[in-house]
Every structure is written in structure tokens, then in C-alpha cells.
Automatic annotation (TrEMBL):
Gene3D superfamilies linked: D-Amino Acid Oxidase, subunit A, domain 2 (3.30.9.10), FAD/NAD(P)-binding domain (3.50.50.60)
Pfam (any one): DAO
SUPFAM superfamilies: FAD-linked reductases, C-terminal domain (SSF54373), FAD/NAD(P)-binding domain (SSF51905)
Name of this protein: FAD dependent oxidoreductase domain-containing protein
Regions that span the bilayer: none
Domain of life according to the entry: Eukaryota
Cellular component aspect of the GO annotation: mitochondrion
Residue ranges of domain FAD dependent oxidoreductase in the record: 7-364
Length: 422
């Protein structure tokens, strides 16, 4: 029997695949394949990377906590700027009460602030019409590209092979997988599919479990460097968020009818960054209007960016918007684990959860290679992330739950009810 070239082939070098490669490379012969390993054409490439640890789902808090610890250890990997949840209107008090209860239960440091106190922390983000805020000092923003390149460097230093190639098929003969790219073929004993919004291409069984959504994001024009970066802010009633990128402000919004990007459409997308879609113009204008007028003015004259212009626009001083594409699962948890013999998924891992969930997967794969049991302490995480957990559910139902998750991205609904419905 021929020995495969590698112990593990990882397809997709975004933050998930690259982090996994760095964790596996010291223990196994690893190949990491991507259409453009260093270019990061996937969702990782321009993600704003806000990392909030609070979540009504304990699994997501745990993964976020572990991810923050991992990113903090990487030079320039994480800016511990904190997170403000800013509320408006009379209902805001209920949000704060509920969040305080969750934060206490999860032992997350937090403090309830008046509007004035919130304004002193983030004057550019908090309008006078806010009715209060809650502040989480240990949250922050991950530099997704820096983290991913760092992981790639670590993987290479531990002997992993990193190659550019468009994987066209994955086939299995006996215990060996052949991963065919447009101009090469590699064999491996195990394969991990970490292909982000393209999950359904190589693994059709994941298509309806990892639903791709279009999401608008915009940058203001440049501001003078600040001595202290503001916390990122989320506005739960308006489902929008805003962050300071150091030299300019960025804003994203979920306050629109969710736009699913189907597998047939992702198939022809060279990157997860698409032109700004005019249907999001009002959404973004509404979000920007919630900011103090002097900040809102920095988005005036915003241009609709084309994907090829993103790097050039980022270097310039023109406000611009684009449409990113990312994946959401029916219950909002990543799909991470074994799909079948020797085949694993690492899909739907947000920047917030990527490092934490890839450690869980790396431990599982190393245990499989050694013929041992994976760490018992993480069994609850492996069970929650099991990529086959939606198995009997109809595709249409999976998509409908994923759509609900987009609308309720910060888990405002009672999660016990949401999960019971699955
Ligand atoms: C606008 C925007 C805002 C976001 N905001 C946040 C945020 O604030 N916080 C947060 O936590 N997350 C955020 N996200 C989500 C986050 O960026 C993604 O969930 C995460 O980056 C996904 O990483 P990944 O490694 O799974 O996938 P990707 O980064 O998409 O990587 C997948 C890789 O697979 C490769 N690939 C696919 N198919 C093939 C193939 N056939 N052959 C070879 N290679 C292939 C692609 O080239 C790509 O590099 C945001 C995303 C976007 C777009």
C-alpha cells in the first residue's frame, strides 16, 4: 500500500484553516492548500474582526474566551479596546438587565454606564439620544489578517507545506484521499474542509448547513491618529456595529432583509468581497445616522467599492462601502469536527471563535492520528460543534434557521427556544 504524501490536507487557508495548520504541523505532515494562501480571498481578508465574548450560548462564550487568549499572544493580533453595547429608548433597560444576568453567569467583567460615561469612552460613537450602555473591558478587535499570516508562518516553520491551488475534487480510495487541484494532486490520510463560503462546492452535504450571506460594511474617511482607540460599539435595537480601525471608522449593519448567497452564486465568486449592493444603501445610511453628526459626516460622499479596488481604497482617503460574504449556520455555532472517516469540517468559524474551535479540532485530529481518545474535558464542545448535528433536518429548514440567526445575530431571542426548535 502506498503511503499518502501527508497525514492531513487542509483545504482553505483563512483564519480557520491556517490556525488549524499551525496547531497540527508540530504533530503531523500537513499540507495547507488555498487558491491564494497569502492573499486571503475569503471572509478573513477584510473582516472587521470585532470580538465580543458575551453570548447567550455558553459554547460561543467559551470559544471566544479561548480565541481572545490565543490572539492576545500574537504580536499585534488583538487590540483590547473593549466593547460597548449602546441602548436607546425605554426598552434599552431590559437589554441591559438581561445582559448583566448573562455576563454574571459567564463571569465576564462588565459595567453598566450612563450615556455620559459611554460618551466619554467613545465620543465618536455615542449619540446624545442613547439611554445607557454596558461595557465589557476584556473584548476587543482581532487583526484577522495578522493572526492568519502569523499562523501560516508558524505552520511553515513547523514543516507544513503551503501551496496555492484551486481544489477541484476530493476523492477517497481505501484510506487515502486524493486532493486534486487545477494543476496538481496530493494524497493525504485525512482531509479538512475549511473553505468558508465555498463549503458547499467540495462538500455538498454542508451547503444548506453553512449558509452564505451578503453583509454591508463601510469605511469613513481617515481621521487623525488617536492616542487611545475607542471600544467598538454595538447597537442592539438597530442591529448595527461600529469600530475604530485606528485611522478610520468602519460600520456594519444587519438591519435589512437577509440576503442568502446560494452555492451556485458563490461558485463563481473569486473572493468573499463583492461590489457594494445598492439595496444596502438605505441600511447603511440609517446606521450612519445613528452616530453623532460629526462622525456621520465622515461617511459623506461614500463610494461603492468594487472588490479589486478595496486595497487601493483602504490606502486612500475616500469613504467607501462594500458587500462581504460570510457563513452562518442554523444555530450560529461553527461546524467543526469529523464528517466521516478521515474527513473533517472547519466551517462557519467566525474570527471570534476560530482559534478556540480550531484547538478543539486539532486535539481531535491528533487523537485520531494516534488512535487515542480526544480530551474528555472538551467533549461538550465537540458535541455542540458536530458538523453532522443537523443531519435529518431538511435543507429548507436549515436555511430558514440560518436566516433567523442573521436577523438575531446577537442572540436577543431566548436561545432555549431557538435550540428546542432545531
Ligand atoms: C464584512 C464582514 C464582516 C465580518 N465581521 C466579523 C466580525 O466583526 N467578527 C467576527 O468574528 N467575524 C466577522 N466576520 C466573519 C469572519 O470574517 C468569517 O467567519 C471568518 O473569517 C471565516 O474564516 P474561514 O477561515 O472559515 O473562511 P475564509 O476566510 O473564507 O477562508 C476560506 C478559504 O478557502 C479557500 N477556498 C475555498 N474553496 C477553495 C478551493 N476549492 N480550493 C482552494 N481553496 C479554496 C478560499 O480561497 C479562502 O481563502 C465578518 C466577515 C465579513 C465578510
Amino acid at each position: 500500500m502506498t503511503v499518502p504524501d501527508y497525514d492531513v490536507a487542509i483545504v482553505g487557508a483563512g483564519i480557520a484553516g491556517s490556525t488549524l495548520a499551525s496547531l497540527l504541523a508540530p504533530h503531523a505532515r500537513v499540507i495547507l492548500i488555498d487558491r491564494d494562501v497569502r492573499g486571503l480571498p475569503g471572509s478573513t481578508g477584510h473582516a472587521p474582526g470585532v470580538v465580543a465574548q458575551i453570548n447567550t450560548l455558553p459554547v460561543l462564550t467559551e470559544l471566544a474566551r479561548r480565541s481572545v487568549a490565543a490572539y492576545t499572544a500574537i504580536p499585534n493580533g488583538f487590540d483590547n479596546v473593549g466593547c460597548l453595547e449602546v441602548v436607546r429608548g425605554a426598552d434599552g433597560k431590559n437589554w441591559i438587565q438581561d445582559r448583566v444576568a448573562v455576563a454574571r453567569e459567564r463571569k465576564l467583567e462588565h459595567s453598566v454606564l450612563t450615556t455620559k460615561e459611554a460618551q466619554s469612552l467613545a465620543p465618536a460613537f455615542v449619540h446624545d439620544d442613547a439611554t445607557g450602555a454596558i461595557y465589557y473591558p476584556n473584548d476587543g478587535t482581532a487583526n484577522a489578517k495578522t493572526v492568519t499570516w502569523h499562523a501560516q508562518d508558524l505552520a511553515a516553520a513547523s514543516g507544513a507545506t503551503l501551496v496555492d491551488g484551486n481544489v477541484t475534487s476530493i476523492t477517497r480510495l481505501g484510506q487515502t484521499y486524493t486532493i486534486t487541484t487545477s494543476d496538481d494532486a496530493h494524497t493525504a490520510r485525512r482531509v479538512v474542509v475549511a473553505t468558508g463560503v465555498w463549503a458547499g462546492q467540495l462538500c455538498p452535504c454542508l451547503a444548506s448547513r453553512a449558509v452564505a450571506f451578503a453583509h454591508p460594511y463601510a469605511f469613513a474617511n481617515r481621521h487623525a491618529p488617536r492616542t487611545r482607540m475607542a471600544p467598538f460599539a454595538r447597537f442592539p435595537d438597530a442591529v448595527m456595529y461600529v469600530r475604530d480601525h485606528g485611522d478610520r471608522i468602519g460600520i456594519g449593519s444587519y438591519n435589512h432583509d437577509p440576503v442568502v448567497v446560494r452555492t451556485a452564486a458563490t461558485k463563481v465568486l473569486p473572493t468573499a468581497y463583492t461590489p457594494f449592493q445598492p439595496q444596502f444603501t438605505h441600511t447603511m445610511d440609517d446606521a450612519i445616522r445613528l452616530l453623532p453628526p460629526s462622525t456621520a459626516a465622515t461617511f459623506a460622499g461614500r463610494v461603492d467599492a468594487q472588490p479589486a479596488e478595496l486595497t487601493m481604497l483602504a490606502a486612500g482617503n475616500v469613504p467607501y462601502g462594500f458587500t462581504g460574504v460570510f457563513t452562518i449556520t442554523p444555530d450560529g455555532l461553527p461546524l467543526v469536527g469529523r464528517i466521516n472517516l478521515g474527513m473533517y469540517a472547519a466551517i462557519g468559524c467566525w474570527v471570534t471563535h476560530a482559534a478556540g474551535s480550531m484547538r478543539v479540532l486539532a486535539d481531535l485530529i491528533v487523537a485520531d492520528i494516534r488512535g487515542e481518545d480526544a480530551p474528555e474535558a472538551d467533549e461538550w464542545l465537540r458535541a455542540a460543534l458536530d458538523p453532522c448535528r443537523f443531519h435529518p433536518m431538511a435543507d429548507v429548514e436549515c436555511e430558514s434557521h440560518a436566516v433567523d440567526k442573521y436577523k438575531d445575530i446577537w442572540n436577543k431571542k431566548d436561545q432555549a427556544k431557538v435550540l428546542a426548535a432545531l
